[in-house]
């Protein structure tokens, strides 16, 4: 297909051939120790999720997502969130604008964490302040959070296994033939790829899930070489610069519409990773 990378093109000779596949297998092994509750604690509680601070990471991400879906009018039938992990924040704005949302993750422990909440349980993190904050962004009373929770639970139809290193990352027959209207992926590709070539190749795989004219919202870490997936479990990350994100999107045939960057204030550096910034990219598949 035009604008897509050919079958695994260009990977050999840029760390991507045999050694790339060994790297992917090593990443997979690393993830076997991932602990959803610890990950949520490190990244989704204060100070990184402090709703009274405008410079906290999570409110920044929620505001970018809100603008994309509400102010820029992204809407459609099917949205897929790739590499959801144990988190739901990334679809709290989207759930008002899509008929169907598919969540996905490589690990069963993460899919189970999502299912727990979707089936009415509590899970390892209380998502209420997140729902309240997004209601406020939408100009609604924070007390509307219960309606939003209900909407989110009704719109998510599937929680599927996914592997971004496979040319077709989702189980066959999951999506309409033309593809999804929108893809979201946050902190996944750089956290599961052994090198930049694998990152770009995985981004090309995602493009196969998206219909022509569909939008990709890609959120990720800048300047990060590791993060903790559990106490003592350092998961290696491809350290990205803004320009590399832009060129990988270009190589995969996307049109970059917007790129916003957040720089971490010193007190958000907690030792649970060495991230220096976060990017939010909005791109379109021509
Ligand atoms: C850093 S977490 C991101 C979680 C969440 N999206 C967020 O915004 O916090 C990376 C996620 O990628 C998942 N993952 C690991 N290997 C993967 C693969 N090959 N394909 C897709 N996802 C993978 C992990 O299970 C984990 O949930």
Account of the protein in words:
The protein has 286 residues and is an alpha/beta fold. The chain has a single domain (18-284), classed as Vaccinia Virus protein VP39 (Rossmann fold), CATH 3.40.50. 33% of the residues lie in helices and 23% in strands. The protein has a seven-stranded mixed beta sheet with strand order 3-2-1-4-5-9-8, with helices on both faces. The longest helix has 15 residues, at 57-71. The termini are close together. This is Phenylethanolamine N-methyltransferase.
Task: Offer a few descriptive terms.
single chain; binds S-adenosylmethionine; 286 residues; two-stranded antiparallel sheet; Rossmann fold; S-adenosyl-L-methionine
User: Residue share in helices?
Assistant: 25-40%
CATH class: Alpha Beta
- Assign the structural class, choosing from mainly alpha, mainly beta, alpha/beta, alpha+beta, or little secondary structure: alpha/beta
**Main sheet overview:** 7 strands, mixed
Q: Using the CA coordinates, give the radius of gyration.
A: 18 Å
> What overall geometry do the principal axes of the alpha carbons give?
globular
Strand order of the largest sheet: 3-2-1-4-5-9-8
- Domain tally: 1
CATH fold type: Rossmann fold
- The poorly predicted ranges are 1-19
Count of helices? 9
The percentage of residues in β strands lies in 15-25%
Indicate the mean pLDDT: 93
Named once each, the bound ligands are: S-adenosylmethionine
CATH 2nd-level architecture: 3-Layer(aba) Sandwich
C-alpha termini separation: 11 Å
Protein name: Phenylethanolamine N-methyltransferase
Family: Belongs to the class I-like SAM-binding methyltransferase superfamily. NNMT/PNMT/TEMT family.
GO molecular function: phenylethanolamine N-methyltransferase activity
InterPro entries: NNMT_TEMT_trans, SAM-dep_methyltransferase, SAM-dependent_MTases_sf
